[in-house]
C-alpha cells in the first residue's frame, strides 16, 4: 500500500462522515497521576470515534530535567506538546501525499520551541508564559515535485488539529475537586 | 486514478478513490458499497428460497454452464487494475490470490448476505476461524468483552485461554439477565458476545434488547447465530453488528464440511477481512462449491427440520419417561413468548431430560436406530449426544446441575427425516430402557 495509507478506506470514511457527521466526532482523554516531585504517570482514557468506544491500553511517564527540579526520568511536558504537534503535521503530510499519489521515501519532522522561564516563575510580569516561538522543519524524499511538496506542507499545517490549536487556541474549562 | 480498463477481474462497482489533481481527503470519491460481488442484484424482495438458489450464483459466461463453476485456483492473473487495488487498499474488490478472495467464496458470500439482509459476508475454513477473526477485528489492545456464561466450548477456550495472553479480558454473565449484562460493561468494553440460542438448554436471547444495551454503551454486538439461521430470524436486521455462523451446521446442512461465516455491514466486514488474511482461515474453492450447493436448499431444509422437531418435541413432552423437553416453540419453553414473536422457524434443536439419569440416557442412545450418536448438529440426519460426556464433560455434575443441565439430559439435532419415523424410533427406544 502506498505509504502504508489505505486511501480507499479513508475515502469511504470521509464519505461516511459527509452523510453522517456524528461519525466524525472523536473524543479523547488522558489521566495524569502524580508520582513524586515533577514526575507523573499518564494513562490514555478510552476514546471514541463516532458511536464506538476504542480501548486505549497505553501509559507513559512525564518528568522534568534536574535543572527544573525533576529527575530527568522521562520527556517533559513541553517535549510531549511539541511531539504532539509534529506527529500531527507528519500524519497530515503522509495522508496528503497518498491522496496526491506521491510515494514517500523519507519523512522527518523536527519541532523546536523556546520558553522564557521568567514567565512561568512570574519573575518578570512582562515575560511571556506561553512559548514565544515554535519552529518546525519537514524534511522529505519522494517522487513529488517541489510544487507538490510545498502544497503538501501548507495543507498538512492548515489541516493539523494540534498545530491549529496552538495557532488559534481552544477554550479551556476546568474544575477542582477537593477530597479531604 | 482509474485508467480505462477492459474487464474488471473482480467487483466492477468497487473503484479507485483517486483522480488527478486531488489534493486533500475531502475530494476522495470512493464510497462504501455492498459486496464485493461479481453481480450486484437486489434480492431483498425475493423469498428465502429464491434468494438461496439464485443470489450470488454465477453461470459460466464462456460455456453457458449453469451454476457457479469451481475456480480451483490459488492465484489470479495480475494486471494494472490489480496492482492499483493493492496500492490503494481496495484489494478486497479484486481477485488476486485465493486467500484474499475467489469467485466461489464471493458467490457464497453474496448468497449469505442476501439471506441475512446484510451488506457483506465472509466465509472461513471453520466457525472458529470466523469467530477468532471477527472478535480480534473488533478489539483493541487491552479491550474487554461481556459474553454469555453458556458459550460453545471452542469459543470459551478462545476467550479463556487465548485472549488473556493478548491482554484482553472477558466477563461472563447470564445471557438473559440484562441488568447484569449492562452492569458488567467497563470503560474498555468493546464487544457484547452472545449465542442466539444456547447449548444445550436452548435459551433464546433477546437480540433487540442486547442491541439497545450495546448502542447505549457505544459498543458492538456480535451474535453467534449457529443454532438459528436467517430463515428463523435475521439477526443483523434485529440490531446485531455482526452475526457469526459455524456453517458446518445448518447453513451447509449435510454434515460433510467444516466452514464458517460472518455477515454484517460492509464497514465492519471490511475490518474483519485483514484478520482473515492474517490468521489464514480461508475456505477452499471446492469446499465453497459444496457449501453453495448445500445453502441453496436452506429454506426447505429448515422447514423440514422444524416440522419433524416440533412433532417429536410434542411427542416427547407427553411421554411418561421424559421429565422435561426444551424446544422454543413448545408452550412450556421458558422463552416461548419471545420465540413466538421473533422466530419464523423454530429450528431443529431439542433437548430433553429422561428418568433414570445419564445411565438411562446412554442406554436410550444405544437403542435408537435413526439418530446417529455424534456431536455437531444441523445436518439432514438426526444426531444425538449427551452433554455430560461431550460438550460439558469438563464440568462436575454439580456444576452442570447449577447450569440447569440435569442427569439424563439429551441433546438432539433433529434431521429432515419423517416425523412419524422418528417418533416410532423414540417410542421403541424409550420402551426398551
Ligand atoms: C454455537 C457454535 N459456534 C461455533 C462452533 C464452531 O464451529 P466449527 O466447528 O465450524 O469451527 C460450533 C461448533 O460446534 C458451535 O456449535
Q: Explain this structure to me?
A:
The complex is a heterodimer of chains A (180) and B (433). Chain A is built from five helices and eight strands; from the N terminus they run αββββββαβαβαα. With 180 residues, chain A is α+β, with helices and mostly antiparallel strands. Chain A has two domains: 1-75, 2-Layer Sandwich (GMP Synthetase, Chain A, domain 3), CATH 3.30.300; 76-168, 2-Layer Sandwich (GMP Synthetase, Chain A, domain 3). In chain A, strand 4 and strand 5 form a beta hairpin. In chain A, helix 2 packs across helix 4 and helix 2 (77-99) packs across helix 5 (161-168). By secondary structure, chain B is α/β, with parallel strands linked by helices. Chain B has 14 helices and twelve strands. Chain B has a seven-stranded mixed sheet with strand order 1-7-6-5-4-2-3, sandwiched between helices. Chain B has a five-stranded mixed sheet with strand order 8-9-12-11-10. Chain B starts with 47 loop residues before the first helix and ends with a helix. The A-B interface holds A 1-2, 5-12, 14-16, 45-46, 48, 51-58, 95-96, 99-101, 151, 155, 159 and B 1, 16-18, 22-32, 86-90, 139-144, 167, 187-190, 215, 217-220, 267, 270. Residues 126-128, 152, 154, 195, 224, 226, 246, 248, 258, 260 of chain B line the site of pyridoxal-5'-phosphate.
Summarize the structure.
The complex is a heterodimer of chains A (180) and B (433). Chain A has 180 residues and is of the alpha+beta class.
Amino acid at each position: 500500500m502506498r505509504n502504508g495509507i489505505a486511501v480507499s478506506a479513508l475515502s469511504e470514511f470521509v464519505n461516511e462522515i459527509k452523510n453522517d457527521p456524528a461519525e466524525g466526532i472523536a473524543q479523547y482523554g488522558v489521566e495524569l497521576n502524580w508520582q513524586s516531585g515533577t514526575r507523573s504517570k499518564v494513562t490514555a482514557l478510552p476514546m471514541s470515534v463516532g458511536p464506538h468506544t476504542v480501548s486505549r491500553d497505553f501509559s507513559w511517564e512525564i518528568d522534568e530535567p534536574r535543572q527544573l527540579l525533576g529527575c530527568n526520568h522521562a520527556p517533559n511536558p513541553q517535549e510531549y506538546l511539541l511531539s504532539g504537534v509534529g506527529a500531527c503535521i507528519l500524519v497530515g503530510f503522509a495522508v496528503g501525499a497518498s491522496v496526491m499519489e506521491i510515494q514517500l521515501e523519507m519523512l522527518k519532522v523536527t519541532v523546536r520551541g523556546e520558553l522564557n522561564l521568567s514567565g512561568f516563575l512570574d519573575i518578570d510580569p512582562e515575560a511571556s508564559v506561553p512559548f514565544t516561538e515554535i519552529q518546525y522543519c519537514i524534511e522529505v524524499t519522494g517522487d513529488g515535485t517541489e510544487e507538490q511538496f510545498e502544497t503538501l506542507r501548507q495543507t498538512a499545517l492548515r489541516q493539523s488539529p494540534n498545530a491549529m490549536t496552538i495557532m488559534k487556541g481552544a477554550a479551556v474549562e476546568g474544575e477542582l475537586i477537593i477530597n479531604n | 486514478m482509474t485508467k480505462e480498463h477492459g474487464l474488471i477481474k473482480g467487483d466492477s462497482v468497487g473503484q479507485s478513490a483517486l483522480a488527478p489533481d486531488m489534493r486533500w481527503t475531502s475530494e476522495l470519491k470512493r464510497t462504501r458499497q455492498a459486496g464485493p460481488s461479481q453481480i450486484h442484484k437486489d434480492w431483498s424482495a425475493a423469498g428465502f428460497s429464491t434468494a438461496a438458489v439464485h443470489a450470488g450464483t454465477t453461470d459460466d459466461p464462456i460455456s453457458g454452464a449453469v451454476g457457479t463453476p469451481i475456480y480451483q485456483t490459488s492465484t489470479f492473473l495480475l494486471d494494472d487494475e490489480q496492482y492499483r487495488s493493492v496500492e490503494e487498499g481496495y484489494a478486497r474488490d479484486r481477485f488476486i490470490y485465493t486467500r484474499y478472495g475467489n469467485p466461489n467464496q464471493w458467490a457464497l458470500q453474496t448468497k449469505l448476505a442476501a439471506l441475512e439482509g446484510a451488506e457483506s459476508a465472509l466465509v472461513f475454513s471453520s466457525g472458529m476461524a470466523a469467530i477468532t477473526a471477527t472478535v480480534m477485528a473488533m478489539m483493541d489492545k487491552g479491550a474487554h468483552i461481556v459474553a454469555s456464561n453458556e458459550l460453545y466450548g471452542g469459543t470459551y477456550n478462545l476467550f479463556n485461554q487465548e485472549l488473556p495472553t493478548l491482554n484482553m479480558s472477558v466477563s461472563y454473565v447470564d445471557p438473559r439477565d440484562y441488568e447484569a449484562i449492562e452492569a458488567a460493561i467497563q470503560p474498555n468494553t468493546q464487544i457484547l458476545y452472545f449465542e442466539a440460542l444456547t447449548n444445550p438448554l436452548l435459551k433464546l436471547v433477546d437480540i433487540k434488547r442486547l442491541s439497545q444495551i450495546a448502542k447505549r454503551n457505544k459498543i458492538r454486538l456480535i451474535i453467534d447465530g449457529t443454532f438459528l439461521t436467517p430463515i428463523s430470524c435475521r439477526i443483523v436486521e434485529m440490531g446485531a453488528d455482526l452475526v457469526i455462523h459455524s456453517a458446518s451446521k445448518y447453513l451447509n446442512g449435510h454434515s460433510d464440511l467444516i466452514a464458517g461465516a460472518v455477515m454484517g455491514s460492509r464497514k465492519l466486514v471490511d475490518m474483519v477481512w485483514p484478520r482473515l488474511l492474517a490468521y489464514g482461515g480461508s475456505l477452499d474453492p471446492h469446499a465453497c462449491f459444496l457449501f453453495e450447493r448445500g445453502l441453496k436448499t436452506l429454506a426447505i431444509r429448515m422447514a423440514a427440520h422444524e416440522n419433524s422437531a416440533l412433532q417429536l418435541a410434542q411427542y416427547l413432552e407427553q411421554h411418561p419417561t421424559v421429565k422435561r423437553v426444551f424446544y422454543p416453540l413448545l408452550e412450556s419453553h421458558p422463552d416461548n413468548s419471545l420465540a413466538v414473536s421473533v422466530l419464523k422457524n423454530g429450528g431443529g434443536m431439542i433437548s430433553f431430560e429422561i428418568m433414570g439419569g445419564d445411565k438411562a440416557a446412554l442406554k436410550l442412545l444405544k437403542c435408537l436406530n435413526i439418530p446417529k450418536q455424534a456431536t455437531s448438529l444441523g445436518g439432514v440426519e438426526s444426531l444425538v449426544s449427551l452433554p455430560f460426556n461431550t460438550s460439558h464433560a469438563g464440568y462436575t455434575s454439580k456444576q452442570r446441575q447449577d447450569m440447569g443441565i440435569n442427569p439424563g439430559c439429551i441433546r438432539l439435532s433433529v434431521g429432515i427425516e419423517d416425523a412419524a419415523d422418528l417418533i416410532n424410533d423414540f417410542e421403541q427406544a424409550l420402551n426398551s430402557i
